[in-house]
Amino acid sequence: MKRWYRHYLPAFGALSRAPVRCVLAKQVYFTANEAAWLMFLIGFALGAIVVTQLHGQYGQSRDAALRLLGSLTFGELAPLLTVLIVMARSASAIAIELASMRVNGEVRELERMGIPIHGYLVLPRVLGMMISAVLLTACMALGSMLGGMLVISGWDASYQVLALERIVRFGELALCVAKAASFGLAGGILACHAGLRVQLNATEIPRAASRAVMRGLFALFVLDLCWVVFK
What we know:
Helices cover 86% and strands 0% of the residues. By secondary structure, it is mainly alpha-helical. It has one domain (18-230). Helix 2 packs parallel to helix 6 (117-153) and helix 4 runs antiparallel to helix 6 (117-153). It is elongated, with a radius of gyration of 20 Å.
């Protein structure tokens, strides 16, 4: 318990410093902002595919197909697929960045200057991954619902948009946010761990990226299984 207070409470206190907040903002920008339209378009295509299958092949009514799409998207597909992409795209980048800093001696110099590594390097990247996962999951989920509504209702989709609260329940929204946050948090922690635990050898940098992605994907599916079993 003492170790928890000693390592992590000071790290959260580092958010009061402008350089740490700047690193956090950059992490969110490069992880979330640059991929927002990609996630929206993937979600749009996903929603169109799902409702086409449900309505065309399985004979579901328009309202039933959209309710199933909302349940699948917010409960499972959006957080899982989003963080799969984020893990492949950003976890490797974080691991490479931190591994390069460690191999080049930058981490050691920061420690010599008394700058806390957990507060300056780890915390903003982990929080950035978590925030980005939630934001990008929202983009994919909204794109999926819009794609499904346009495909199944055409230009009459405005009625479905106005009735969105009837299609998606608050519990599904809360579950979607909680899943995305937990997936992003785990991915950020594992990426930072892989980057900072490398040996002082340049050949370890790509291996750190590979470990970050593979461990992150494993943790993603284990966490998803836990959500399914214990929710």
